[in-house]
Amino acid sequence: MNDKVLHTPRDLNLFAGDQPHLDGPFPSRVEANPENVERGLAQLVLTIVELLRQIMERQALRRIDGGGLSPEQVERLGRTFMELDKRMAELRSQFGLDEDDLNLNLGPLGDLL
Amino acid sequence: VIDLCAITTAPAPEAAGLRAIEADGLAALGAPAVEREASVDQLWQREQLLERLMRDCDLLPVRWGTVVEDDEVERLLASRRAELVHALDRVRGAVEIAVRVATDEQAVTSTAQLYLHVKRRLAEIHAALAALSRESAEIAAGRSAYLVAREDVDSFVSTVAALEEAHDDLSILCTGPWPPYSFVGT
User: How many CB pairs under 8 A join A and B?
Assistant: First the structure.
């Protein structure tokens, strides 16, 4: 496997927490049976929320780069997005979803996120 | 019954244990299907097989577990010919390079300033690498795949090294070359 590493990072330990997982090798579908319907629905809803979160975050970064915001406003924006990011991670783990699960394949348009 | 592993342009390169079924300029490569569970070892063997094939041709990796009746294969190649030819054109002469950017998690979520700083760096690094590749895909935060022309891989990797050098709070892991897994979807 080592021969696949083209550039060794400064701190390899930062990547060591990722265990290879094979629990979901196939694309997940929204399964509509009583046990899964909640998770399926959560996946769909969180996907939309994550899309909006990313769009807003990019927009915020653009506004900050454009200047005109006070340090307090920048701090507030940053804190908001940081908290949203944390909450999303919590919600994901509550429903046993990976970051990759919060994406939709839109056929010829590619992936949603 | 055949377990497909790759689609390529005919004539397909020879490979031990693999059968090539050709139709109208396309070739499907596969082995007789056997019942088996997906395991890390099995998937790694498949990976190495694809990588050997990639030395001699451009290919579309087929999803693990795609099992087709022998006489269906030709029909499949014929009925989806336009789509497959287009997909092969898309990856021709290119390989997938995976890039992961990581930073100390605790540090990122400690202050708003730092959070925004890291998000901005991630976007900048992605943009710089996307400019060197034919296509790019963001898989998750700090995790991206790039479709890079074979002859550009070396300069892509030196750019990764330079980007890491320029940001002493980030670590960048770069792996490959991989079959174009992230660039074969419809």
Answer: 103
